[in-house]
Amino acid sequence: MTPDARTLIVVADGRRARLLEQPRLDGPLHDRPEWLPGLKEQHDHAAPSHITHAGDAHDRAEKAFLDDLARRIDDLNARQGFDHVILVAPPRALGHLRRGLSTAVMRKVVGSDAHERVDATIITLQSVVHAARLAHAA
Predict the structure, then answer these.
(1) Which among 30, 58, 69, 76 has the fewest CB atoms less than 10 Å away?
(2) Is the entire prediction scored with pTM above 0.70?
(3) How far apart are CA 94 and CA 66, in angstroms?
(4) What does the pLDDT look like over 27-44, one tens digit per residue?
């Protein structure tokens, strides 16, 4: 691995996302909200839980959000040319996101973390990114 490789860190759940950049291996992380213009957070407006289709509506909204996010990541990668990608999302969202990403982006994935961390601090995410790289290298 080259020390000055640029990494895109995608932190998401089924409703919200953050994109961060790491300009070099084990370097600082930088939040990049400007890379998500127009991506609408999904709000849980599903019907009450006693109605059978409430879960289906929530599932569809989550999948649509993650599909939109995957398209944006593909476009961003094409413009920015990242060397690596790290995905951070709860297991179900991580699976949706992986299925939505292009083969070109998936080849750059060098680690993942299957946890909800959208609200995590930069310091916490720095540790998560480091651990994901180590786990992938092992």
Answers:
(1) 30
(2) yes
(3) 9
(4) 999 999 999 987 766 555
